[in-house]
Design a protein that fits this description.
This protein has 18 helices and no strands. The protein has 419 residues and is an all-alpha fold. It has one domain. α2 packs antiparallel against α3, α10 packs antiparallel against α11 and α10 crosses α15.
Amino acid sequence: AKNSDHYWSEPEQSILYGTPLYEVASPSQKIALNHLNWFLAYHNIAAGENEVITYNQVTSSVFAAIGGYDTISQELDLETEQERSHIHAFHKIGFLTTRTLLGKDAFKAPLKGKSYKLRKRGLANGSKSSDSQHLYLSLKNLPWSEYRDKTLGFIAKGMLSSSKQYYSQYLRELEQKSPSIPASAGGFWGRGLAPNSRLRFLTFNWGGSPFMACQYYALRYIANMAVKNIEFTIYKYLQKLQKKGEFIPSPTAISYYHLLDEAFHTTTSLFLGRNLYKELSKPTAYEKLIANWTIYLIQKNFHNGISGASPVLMSKDNFSTIDFVYKVLKSPVFGMSQREALDWMQQCFCQEHEGFHVALKNYQNLLSNSRRFCEEIDYLWPVNREMGLMAAAGSIDKALQANRQTLDQFSRLVTNSVE
């Protein structure tokens, strides 16, 4: 109960911070928005760490096969165990927070976007496009996906055949257990490198050669920097509380100690992604192509704009984020009607406010750190070395324009749905 009465991080790290709604919110509502921001941030972090568990083991097997890198493999195995503990803590606090603040509606499936609705409407109405949609849905239920994944795996293995002696034993065991290796739909890799078939293809590459195993850690370093972008502020917040002798909420302490673990993980990512590959055989043209493609995709799909919902999100607001804010406004925290919630969301997502400027500052800090790292990677294309897509997306005007389109679509879905 004592945790619920205190901020878990600086007020700037709150859902809807700096918006017109935040300005008129009560003290208790502002604390709730702060707690929900912690949940949202660590929900995403947990999804990313769940992915890391798989890819750490895939790449660890490659380093073990090289010989002489047993210490690296052992460090990655330790990290994997730490990630499991982190995820458990994040999920436990996240569940209690959302259940307490949002009630049962927090666990309802989110509304679907335009493409999903159009597909269902086409199937239901028997439109001309329904034949292709039926074919698509039928193929999903047939072994097609298995053939596709095996074909992609065959291509990756063929292109990396000169390194076949280093092929990940862990990945080989995954293939023996199931025709389709695991692929996440969320998190840094699941969102940034989607769809799942593409992510599975990249997994075959990361487990297929020493260079590609190192390249995975270049991506992971960028993800580590995004987490640090959030947690370093909480780290300083806890130190401020300690200095004043004030109460330290448990979630704040968890963030503090997680950052200490992440500092270790970030150093590992930096060494493997920036330094170790230079001691190995030079990458082939194919390996350079795949390596650059992944960083390009992360810029395009993940670090692709600023958020009006939360200053700590390093992605533009998508349908899922807007749906989450809608649930917050209709929850017992605010108790709004549908019309009230949509009106406030229009002001929060589609009009310039202080929160966008805080988000832009955080985004530019991450951009600067990512560029500093990428400048030292000699195989990158200029657009990746300079993080050109990410830089171009860091605009309040672009965020407002995108949000107007997304919120308009969301509003039409909400008003046409049965509540």
